[in-house]
Design goal:
Length: 168
Amino acid sequence: MTLSMYQASVPVAVRALTNLSAVLKKGHAHAQSKQVEDATLLQTRLVPDMLPLVRQVQIACDMATRGIARLAGVEPAAFEDNETTFAQVYDRIERAIAYVQGFTAEQIDGSETRAIHLKMRSGEMHFEGQSYLLDFVLPNVFFHCTTAYNILREAGTDIGKQDFIGRN
């Protein structure tokens, strides 16, 4: 059995973002039960030099949308980073999922050797599509989803591994 680039990207990103949304909803409910304002929880971080919860969500969404768009060979859509409420965060995730789901297998499959060039603060990065997906996009999506999960756990949310992984 072979696994296509589409199968390794779109459904995986959609599941990660869907599960992120579910974990956030539990975190939001917990915060509301403790009279914690949205802005307070969204600005919570694990340590002072780490990005807050809202940025973890934004980056997870951006990695999924930009990563898959680049695999398809199209200019990624831009999403503003202006969420200040959980309703806006959920909307951001829903828009990211819809955007990712808009790509077809025909657009993604065959991108294993597509040249992908990124300009980063630290310099340029160059990948072929498969390495870009497996070594950069997916690890980043999961890192930021995991960090969001950890922030919520630290804030007292009753979530576990099954919430992060989701159910089939």
